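Researcher: Here's my situation. A collaborator sent me these components and asked whether they could plausibly form a single complex. I don't have experimental data yet, so a predicted model of the whole assembly would be a useful starting point for our discussion.
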Amino acid sequence: MGALRSYRLRLQRKRWRIRAFRKRRDLSAVQNRTGQIAPDDMLVFSTLRNEKIRLEYFLRYYRDMGVNHFLIVDNGSDDGSLEYLTEQPDVSIWSTGASYKRARFGADWLNWLQSRYGHQHWTLVVDVDEFLIYPFCDTRPIRALTDWLDASSIRSFSAMLLDMYPKGPINTFPYAEGQNPLEIANWFDSGNYTVSKNTKFGNLWIQGGPRARSFFHDRPERAPALNKIPLVKWHRDYAYVSSTHMVLPRGLNQTFDEWGGEKASGCLLHAKFLDTFGTKAAEELIRKQHYAASHEYKAYHKHLKDNPDLWCKWSEKYINWRQLEILGLMSKGNWA
Amino acid sequence: MTVGIVMLVHEALDRAEQVARHWSAHGCPVVIHIDTQVSRPDHTDFTERLGKLDNVRFSKRHRCEWGTWNMVAASQGASELMLAEFADVRHVYLASGSCLPLRPVDELKQYLEDRPMTNFIESVTTEDVPWTVGGLDAERFTLRFPFSWKKQRKFFDGYVRLQRRLGFRRKIPVGLVPHLGSQWWCLTRQTLSAILEDPDRSDYDAYFRRVWIPDESYYQTLVRLYSSNIESRSLTLSKFDFQGKPHIFYDDHLQLLRRSNCFVARKIWPRANRLYDTFLSDNPDIMIGAEPNPGKIDRIFAKAVDRRTRGRPGLYMQSRFPNAGWENGKTCAPYSVFEGFADLFEEFEDWLGKMVGARVHGALFAPGKVEFAGRQKVFSGALSDRAMLRDYNPKSFLTNLIWNTRGEHQCFQYGPRDTQGFDWFVAADSNAQISVISGAWAVPLFHSNRNFTEIRKEAARLQKIEAKHLGVLRSPHTKARVRIWSMADFIESPMEPLQTVIDEIGPRNLRRLTEAPRMVDLTGFGQFLQNLKNQGMHPHLMGDFPSGDTMPETPRRRRKPYLVKK
């Protein structure tokens, strides 16, 4: 990479940081418990809107994994999410009524909170419908992973988004608060992902899965990106470029091996397709606050009218991380 | 007689304390070296708590950075203290704060009691070690290393390069033969004191002070001077990964560690509560009298290193995306590509499916639709039959298909009408078996009911594509197994080539082929080619067909003559 390109990326990173700094004014602290954060605590950052029904399980899942503190931006919920989160002892919450789109889909807000509170911490940036799976996650807490990453001088850990769906039309199974959404949406596509390299940022671009198969088969280039780097040992100079797909400096995107080996990686199980999805998609379509003129939500809406069944004969039923490892969706790397 | 434990501690003091108490309670004197990195309050706290035990001592502190002399200095000081203070110590065991005894201490004592003169220290000459980090083995002993490998890597590497270029070599002290090995040893009082009280020790120390990672070579080399009773293995189970850092043990390794029968394991994750609770409890149900046998653990860690360095061939995913040429197998299993067969034979797919134990697809890259076997809309791995999805990244499509169907041989049809653009990938893939009947694409044109000008144009297009494709297949860089017949040669005697191709696919049919696929009617094909020529196009890929109707009779009329037996 030439010096000029490297300098341009540096400027771009600074731009995102300045932007995040400006956007901090969008946020007003509702409950700031960040004083509780101990030096080597593991932090989760998230933005949400009207996700009350999912919160109970989301918090439980990550608490059990060993996360110490949650820093959450609430973007104008009116379903009680804010009140629920305010009561949680390990959650700091900021609220904003500002535009999600103009905060680059929440990235600016989280970049700000991360630089303010995430410096020198392992930080995990996930949505409330994303559940991190990493090698040995059934026997080892997340701290084991981050300690190992530290010992190996690795700063970032990739976890591909794996769309989960139920068997049968999405509306068939009602989701109850506190329930594990993966009990309902426990099927996934095991081997239809396309990978290509983004030479500018040095990250991989992964597309595919049930959304590409069912909603974007005539415009595959518009299918959502599934590559994610949600777990980073944060430094205040870092910045996410676009959601958690890319991060600067670009060395952090080097979560893949180019010489034939496999680095350790995980998966984010994406339990988006529950019965709540229909109303959500309709609402988002009206709000027009999503990426690329919400084309994703337009596509969903078009198909959701006939209550689609994403399941097919070749879908795999989720068992555990070892299954995902064998299927080649994630890897243990040299962690044993 | 007992064994004394020299313990080097620099982090996780609570665990170190727990282990030190365990040793001490079972009658093993402990001398602890605490790194100067440990903060003063932590240090005072630690020494106060352990200082109450009468068989625990603390040695002079050093700042131990990985790969530097101070690691040796620390163990020397602690060992001297051990030998001086505890007269009943016969063996001294060097351990770290993250070591965990796996077997009852009495077992270890008994084991050493039975081998009173044996030194357990891995000690191998430099020519024989494959595991050195940074490519330095013999040069560890002949170059100088004033810079830190961890903090000043550029200077470190630069200085090594400079010395190599200048041909600089240090002299190894007379009598020393460099040996390397694990830094965790267990030496007898006799040997250890001989090393520490050697009149030439100051010379040796001065020399090793400038050797790189002396803790892996100091004792390992010197022990060869004083003892012939050496078991060249470490009693401490300690595995290193490809970067030279130790593998870490977690709670889920419990059964493995139990079955390893090793005395001490390193390195244990400080929060592995179950390991500490289990092995430090005095529950003697584990491992009585067995020899250490870390084979299974070795295999697991060797596999992990292999996965990190070589990976799974044919897999492309979020953390494995090899550069071109580094795939170590572009796809994960052999597959067969048939070009022109489906044009020349009727129902070739069905026939092939009957002949071989493989999955036979139609034209996977056909325009409009992916023709999966049985024309399924979705196939293994939830691959869709939508052409646009496939054409978005045909290479991924192919590698995914082969990966998803591991354990089953895939066959598919291909031709110049299909999506192009990844010939090089397939041609350079040693798993691909490509059989081509060149020019057979003209047969469907011959049978089509289209205007001749159109046919001529299409023929010219397809011929151009196939000629280019054949050029790729014939290039010297091709690694695939390629077989090309011109159509004329092929129909001369179709059975032999078919037999070869099918034998290659699978062992299901070791007998001769009994049933030939039915060839399409080629009456008038020669004239058709002649017509193309008359129109100014030169169809050359088919080989030489006589014009007019002097074609060989199609096999339709001479069915299975070779089946007739007396």
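Model: Some features of this prediction you could bring to your collaborator: Residues 3-326 of chain A form a domain with the Spore Coat Polysaccharide Biosynthesis Protein SpsA; Chain A fold (CATH 3.90.550). Chain A touches chain B through 59 residues (CB under 8 Å).
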